[in-house]
């Protein structure tokens, strides 16, 4: 792994940049609203994603209130509960996490970290954001449409999703699919940009094997998303046809309330396959950028080179590839052939190997590092712990015999919230504390940040740990109210109250975080240039925050990998990627 950082010997074939015409904004409107600058587009993506994410957060409070105090709130009836659960799940997974990691961090960081002026196709990049925003508006509109939002569950399984007993059957489900279709079109426009930009616009000397792991994570996740989203796209279009045109791709011959519906012979299971062909890779579309970002955060804040860079790159790529052949583990209860069950269980368990390698390498990076307990570091450490815990319950659920009894219970809810809810969000927070000074020129308030970290970290455990137990004693998921059962002890109700209080406290801490984000814009301490003394290119721009075109007159030239921290003999404990070998020891 060490061989990569020594000097700039390899031959590279960078694209020539001199003749790249940058689009220069001419008015306020083209500068800040219809902007083609990836940095502005990134902020637009982030603000929209966080705004809609707040809606999902509020929905989770409403669900938790209902679960703790069943029937006390007339505002929440059975139908609402299903609408809330559906919208909460879909918004969190797609409209918040995917959009924020790829559209937000991808847009901001890719061009800067690889030493490019902007994305390859800025106009298409701008369209990508506006179509995403339209998708969000269509989704929000479904709350106000007659019949309200769909209550089909975030997996949108037919035939239930289209039957009249399901809330939102009139408009909600149509708007949900329309919104997903728009989202995928918008994402594809952005995604092609991220891939082409990484492949074609790297600065001179920035070989693929010198890319920071953040870029590797986002790049691989984007390639995956470009391959996985089409599964959801066709499934959405075909479901719309079933709903609107009377086709029967997924709708079986079915009798509803004594009436024979017009559908005949469609396959609901086919929908499940298409959905999870997208749905499982989706977990890693969110996780891989998080993996990459965490690697860079711990290396920077422990002043140590990442352990096993090549291994880390390959682990990212292999996890990405393997996650296309494990989708069936979401369908163990669909009555699949046991041979298939065996195949999917095996492939699922194999993914644990490259994943474990990543965890070892993070720990070895920290080992004997000069660890600074900054907020980005705290969030990264919390991520590693949380991801390991969520991963371990994943190993249980990956086995057919364990999954079958547990799959309808709160155990699954606890598992996926740890691994794909809490873990990536911890990374998002760490990343925001890390890059906020670059984006705004100011630091976030440290005290508020500490408060935010501890409440969020401990609070999420208070929420999701007891849920494992509830699942094990048989509390089902997606239930509006438990009612009286012979097997669930009354103590489950007390635990539900506890979880809800924890959820409200954690929610409050996020409001403090938002306050910090906004107030620090005006009142935050002015950031030094490169406050974390990082090696990567985004901190080496002539202006901070970076301006249009990123690099002023001259593009950077890259001489080394991204992890030259605490190099023996060097004057400073970090050497920026664009520092020539001769001048080693005196960082610019
Ligand atoms: C503090 C934050 C959160 C709380 C309190 C929370 C709470 C809940 C609750 C109460 C349910 C319904 C469980 C049931 O009745 O079966 C649920 C479902 C769900 N949540 Fe969260 N959640 C949070 C954050 C997240 C995040 C960050 C994600 C992103 C991955 C997420 C994804 C989902 C999904 C996919 C479902 C399943 C929806 C379905 O079954 O259709 N949640 N959440
Ligand atoms: Cu999966």
Features:
binds copper (II) ion; single chain; disordered N terminus; 588 residues; mainly alpha; 2 strands; two-stranded antiparallel ribbon; Cytochrome C Oxidase, Chain A; binds protoporphyrin IX containing FE
Could you describe the 3D structure shown?
The chain is mainly α. It folds into 3 domains: 32-250, Cytochrome C Oxidase, Chain A; 286-526, Cytochrome C Oxidase, Chain A (Up-down Bundle); 542-588, no CATH class. 61% of the residues lie in helices and 1% in strands. The chain has helices at 28-33, 38-68, 78-114, 122-144, 172-200, 213-244, 268-301, 309-322, 338-366, 375-397, 400-406, 410-440, 446-472, 491-523; strands spanning 255-256, 259-260. Helix 2 packs parallel to helix 4 (122-144) and helix 5 (172-200) packs antiparallel against helix 6. The longest helix has 37 residues, at 78-114. The structure holds protoporphyrin IX containing FE (HEM) and copper (II) ion. Protoporphyrin IX containing FE binds at residues 60, 63-64, 85-86, 88-89, 92-93, 97, 153-154, 413, 417, 420-421, 425, 463, 477-479, 503, 506.
């Amino acid at each position: 792994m060490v061989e990569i950082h020594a000097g700039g010997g390899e031959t590279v074939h960078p694209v020539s940049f001199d003749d790249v015409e940058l689009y220069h904004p001419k008015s306020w409107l083209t500068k800040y609203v219809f902007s083609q600058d990836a940095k502005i587009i990134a902020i637009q993506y982030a603000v929209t994603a966080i705004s809609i994410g707040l809606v999902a957060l509020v929905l989770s409070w409403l669900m938790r209130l209902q679960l703790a105090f069943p029937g006390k709130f007339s505002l929440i009836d059975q139908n609402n509960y299903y609408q809330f659960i559906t919208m909460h799940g879909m918004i969190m997974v797609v409209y918040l996490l995917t959009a924020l990691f790829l559209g937000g961090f991808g847009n901001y960081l890719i061009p800067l970290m690889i030493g490019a002026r902007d994305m390859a196709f800025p106009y298409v990049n701008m369209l990508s954001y506006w179509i995403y925003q339209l998708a969000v508006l269509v989704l929000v509109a479904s709350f106000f449409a007659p019949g309200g939002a769909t209550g089909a569950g975030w997996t949108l399984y037919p035939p239930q999703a289209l039957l009249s007993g399901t809330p939102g059957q009139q408009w909600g489900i149509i708007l949900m699919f329309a919104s997903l279709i728009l989202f995928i079109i918008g994402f594809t426009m952005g995604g092609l940009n991220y891939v082409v930009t990484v492949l074609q616009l790297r600065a001179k000397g920035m070989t693929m094997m010198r890319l920071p792991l953040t870029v590797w994570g986002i790049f691989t996740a984007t390639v995956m998303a470009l391959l996985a989203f089409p599964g959801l796209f066709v499934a959405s279009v075909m479901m719309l046809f079933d709903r609107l045109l009377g086709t029967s791709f997924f709708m079986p011959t079915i009798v509803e309330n004594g009436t024979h519906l017009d559908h005949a012979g469609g396959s609901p299971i086919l929908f499940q396959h298409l959905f999870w062909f997208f749905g499982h890779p989706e977990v890693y579309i969110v996780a891989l950028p998080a993996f990459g970002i965490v690697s860079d955060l711990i290396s920077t804040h422990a002043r140590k080179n990442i352990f096993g860079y090549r291994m880390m790159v390959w682990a990212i790529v292999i996890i990405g590839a393997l996650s296309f052949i494990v989708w069936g583990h979401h369908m163990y209860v669909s009555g699949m052939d046991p041979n298939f069950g065996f195949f999917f269980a095996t492939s699922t368990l194999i993914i644990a190997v490259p994943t474990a390698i990543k965890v070892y390498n993070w720990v070895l990076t920290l080992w004997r590092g000069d660890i600074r307990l900054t907020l980005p570091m705290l969030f990264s450490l919390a991520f590693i712990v949380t991801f390991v815990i969520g991963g371990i319950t994943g190993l249980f659920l990956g086995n057919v015999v364990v999954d079958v009894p547990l799959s309808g219970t709160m155990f699954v809810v606890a598992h996926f919230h740890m691994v794909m809810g809490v873990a990536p969000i911890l990374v998002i927070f760490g990343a925001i504390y890390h890059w906020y000074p670059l984006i705004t020129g100011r630091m976030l308030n440290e005290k508020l940040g500490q408060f935010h970290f501890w409440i969020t970290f401990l609070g999420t455990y208070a929420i999701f740990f007891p849920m494992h137990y509830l699942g094990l004693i048989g509390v089902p998921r997606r239930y509006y109210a438990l009612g009286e059962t012979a097997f669930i002890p009354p103590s489950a109700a007390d635990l539900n109250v506890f979880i809800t209080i924890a959820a409200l406290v954690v929610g409050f801490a996020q409001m403090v975080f938002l306050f910090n984000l906004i107030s620090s814009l005006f009142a935050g301490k002015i950031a030094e240039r490169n406050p974390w003394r990082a090696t990567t290119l985004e901190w080496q721009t002539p202006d901070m925050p970076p301006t249009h075109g990123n690099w002023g007159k001259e593009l950077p030239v890259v001489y080394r990998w991204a992890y030259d921290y605490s190099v023996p003999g060097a004057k400073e404990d970090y050497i920026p990627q664009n520092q020539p070998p001769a001048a080693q020891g005196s960082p610019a």
